[in-house]
UniProtKB/TrEMBL annotation:
Residues 32-439 form the RsdA/BaiN/AoA(So)-like Rossmann fold-like domain. Residues 11-23 have a biased composition (Polar residues). Its cofactor is FAD. Residues 220-386 form the RsdA/BaiN/AoA(So)-like insert domain. InterPro entries: BaiN-like, BaiN-like_dom_sf, FAD/NAD-bd_sf, RsdA/BaiN/AoA(So)-like_dom, RsdA/BaiN/AoA(So)_Rossmann. The lineage of its organism: Eukaryota, Sar, Stramenopiles, Ochrophyta, Bolidophyceae. It holds the Pfam family HI0933_like. This is Uncharacterized protein. Keywords: FAD, Flavoprotein. SUPFAM superfamilies: FAD/NAD(P)-binding domain, HI0933 insert domain-like. Residues 1-23 are annotated as: Disordered. It comes from the Eukaryota. The keyword rRNA-binding does not apply.
Length: 451
C-alpha cells in the first residue's frame, strides 16, 4: 500500500510558486523523491529538491520519512535550546571554517565555495530569522530560541512536500528501471530517487550498507572527558571554574594534537570548547585508548611564566604566595581557587615570594604551563551530539551529493564520514549538503525522468 499523502504540518499557500500539481509541468506523472530522515539536512534537502524541481517545471512529490514521532530534534536541543545555527560566516573559508572539520575538510571545499556560509545565512535571514554572532564566533537567532529556526524550516516546505512521522524504513531495494522500493510498516512505495539524511542512526547505516556502501565505523565525537582528580580527588572543589584561554595538548604514538580555547571544570572532569575540539580531532585515537590518557594543559599560553614570576617576586617580595593569583597572569583569568589547587599539587607551602627558591619558581612555572591531567572516560556533550564515521567519502560525488555506488541515491549530513568541532559547523555541513543535493536530485530528474 503506498504512503498516504497526509502532511503532518499545515503548509503555507504560495501564489507566486507553481506546485507539483501544475498542469503546465513537463511531466504528467510526478517525479517522486524520498528524503529519509527528518533532521536539519533532511529538511533542507527536501526544500531545495522541491524548489529546484519547480524551477525546472517538473511535476513532483517529495516525502520526508521520519522513523520517530518528532522531526528536527537536533535543531531543537542545539546550543542548549538556542540553536547554534552557523559559525561566524565572515571567517575565511579555507583558513578558518574548513579547518574545523577533522573529517571532510577537503571534500567540503567545493560545495562551500559554490554555496558560501554567508549565502546560507542570507537564506535564513530572508525568511525571517534574524541572527547575531557572539564573541566566541557562534551564530544564533536573536530570539535565542531554536523554535525560530524550526518554524522557518517548516514554513519553507512547499505544497509538494509531505512529512510522515513514525515511518521507519525497514528495507530498500533497487528496481530494474532504476527506481527504489522502500518498505515501511504500512507497505511498499516506489521512488525515482532517494536522499539519505539519517544522521548517525544505526538503521540508516544498515540501509546504506545494504545498498553496497562502505561504512567507516561510527564513533563518538564532541564529548567531555572525566578525571578522578576532579571527580573525587583534590580538584573536586573546582566544579564550575572556567578559564578563557587554555592550551590543551594530547600526544599519541602517531601525532600530537593541540587545541586552544575556553576550559570548564565540571563535577566529573573537563568540558568547554578547548576539550570538545580535542575530542573531535582525536576521536579515533581516544577511542583506541578506551578514553584513558594524559592531557597537558597550559593555563598561560603565549607567556614566559618563569620570567613573569621572577619579576613579580622582585616587585612583591613580602606578598604571600598563597593569596590571589599574581597580577602578572591577569590576562589569563586564573581563579584563586585553581591557583591554590595548583600550588597544593606541587606542595608549595605558605611562603612570601622572597622565600621562594629558584626550584620553587620553576615548579610553579611548570604546573602553569605543563599541568599533566590523567583522564579516564567520557560524557556526551549535552548541547551537540556528534559522531565521526559514516559513508566513505570516496563513494560520494560532492558536486551533487550523489552516491557513486547507486545512481539516484544521494547522501547528506552526518550519515557521511564528515564531522566538525562545536560552534555551528556541523549544521553548516547539513545546510550546504542539503542545498547541493537539492540541485543534484533535480538535475538527475531532468536527465533521467521520463514521466
Amino acid at each position: 500500500m503506498p504512503l498516504k499523502r497526509l502532511p503532518s504540518f499545515p503548509f503555507p499557500q504560495t501564489k507566486s510558486r507553481a506546485t507539483s500539481r501544475d498542469t503546465t509541468a513537463l511531466n504528467s506523472k510526478p517525479f517522486k523523491c524520498a528524503v529519509i530522515g527528518g533532521g536539519p539536512s533532511g529538511y533542507f534537502a527536501a526544500i531545495h529538491v522541491s524548489e529546484k524541481l519547480e524551477e525546472y517545471g517538473i511535476s513532483h512529490e517529495v516525502d520526508i520519512l521520519e522513523g520517530t514521532g518528532k522531526t528536527l530534534q537536533k535543531v531543537r536541543i542545539s546550543g542548549g535550546g538556542r540553536c547554534n545555527l552557523l559559525p561566524d560566516t565572515e571567517l575565511d573559508l579555507r583558513d578558518n571554517i574548513l579547518k574545523c572539520y577533522p573529517r571532510g575538510e577537503r571534500e567540503l571545499y567545493g560545495p562551500m565555495m559554490r554555496h558560501k556560509p554567508s549565502e546560507i545565512l542570507d537564506w535564513f535571514n530572508s525568511r525571517g530569522v534574524e541572527t547575531k554572532t557572539e564573541a566566541d564566533g557562534r551564530t544564533f537567532p536573536v530570539t535565542d530560541s531554536s523554535q525560530t529556526v524550526i518554524d522557518c524550516l517548516v514554513s519553507s516546505l512547499t505544497p509538494s512536500i509531505s512529512v510522515h512521522l513514525k515511518t521507519p524504513i525497514t528495507s530498500i531495494s533497487k528496481n530494474e528501471d532504476g527506481t527504489y522500493a522502500l518498505q515501511t510498516p504500512s507497505g511498499t512505495s516506489t521512488f525515482s530517487s532517494i536522499v539519505f539524511a539519517t544522521g548517525s542512526s544505526r538503521s540508516g547505516y544498515t540501509l546504506l550498507q545494504n545498498l553496497n556502501h562502505t561504512l567507516i565505523p561510527p564513533l563518538p565525537s564532541l564529548f567531555t572527558l572525566n578525571s578522578d582528580l576532579i571527580k573525587t580527588g583534590p580538584f573536586s572543589t573546582l566544579s564550575g571554574v572556567s578559564l578563557p584561554h587554555v592550551l590543551c595538548t594530547f600526544n599519541s604514538n602517531s601525532s600530537e594534537i593541540t587545541t586552544r580555547g575556553p576550559l570548564l571544570f565540571t563535577h566529573v572532569g573537563l568540558s568547554g570548547p578547548c576539550v570538545l575540539k580535542m575530542s573531535s580531532y582525536a576521536a579515533r585515537t581516544l577511542h583506541s585508548l578506551k578514553y584513558e590518557t594524559t592531557l597537558t594543559l597550559n593555563f598561560v599560553p603565549g607567556t614566559d611564566s618563569l620570567k613573569l614570576l621572577n619579576e613579580y617576586k622582585t616587585l612583591n617580595p613580602k606578598r604571600k604566595i598563597r593569596g590571589p593569583t599574581p597580577e602578572c597572569f591577569k590576562d589569563h583569568s586564573i581563579p584563586k581557587r585553581l591557583w591554590l589547587k595548583l600550588l597544593d599539587n606541587i606542595e608549595i607551602q605558605d611562603k612570601i615570594y622572597a622565600e621562594l627558591s629558584k626550584k620553587d619558581l620553576l615548579k610553579i612555572s611548570n604546573v602553569l604551563e605543563e599541568f599533566k591531567l590523567h583522564v579516564k572516560g567520557k560524557n556526551t556533550n549535552k548541547d551537540e551530539f556528534v559522531t565521526c564515521g559514516g559513508v566513505d567519502l570516496k563513494e560520494v560525488n560532492f558536486k551533487n551529493m550523489e552516491s557513486k555506488v547507486q545512481r539516484g541515491c544521494f547522501v547528506v549530513g552526518e550519515c557521511l564520514d564528515v564531522d566538525a568541532v562545536t560552534g555551528g559547523y556541523n549544521f553548516l555541513n547539513c545546510w550546504v549538503g542539503g542545498k547541493v543535493a537539492g540541485k543534484g536530485v533535480a538535475d538527475y530528474a531532468l536527465e533521467n525522468y521520463k514521466g
